[in-house]
Amino acid sequence: VVFMPETAVPTKVEAIRNYGAEAKFAPSMEGIVPIMEAYQHEHGLTYISPYNHKDIIAGQGTVGLEILEDVPEVDTVVVPVGGGGLIAGIALAIKSQRPDVRVIGVEPTGANIVKRSLESGRLEEAKDINTVADGLAAPAAGELTQAVIARYVDEIVLVSDEQIVEALKLLLFRS
User: Measured between alpha carbons, how far is 58 from 144 in angstroms, rounded to an integer?
Assistant: First the structure.
């Protein structure tokens, strides 16, 4: 069972269903956690965070290992940041083998839960998610991811939706 906001992109909903999962909806990402938790307890299900779980972080770390294998001379790795699982895994894997490699996170200004949590020193929850990068719109920061990010990530940079759209155009028209 996968929970997502009612505004989820239809192709993502279709893909989730095609993989055999059941799609459940909440009015927004900001309110999704209580709805999901109620469903979980009512049906006796186990929750696996898509970012704040040790196995998810370890799995994401394989991306970092592949980067080191494919580009051994790498000096900087830039990673998109949503809930932090991908950057936590990549940073942990890379820094454990190459502490000199810089790991930079890029987070949308309209969904900057990780940077806000780092700055405040506590786990923040989303207040007003507003970004074109819906895959980076996490409802809350996670304890595991924040600890790894604080220790291994060199910097989190915020980018506007305009910058994200421009980068997407560049990728679409230059590849």
Answer: 11
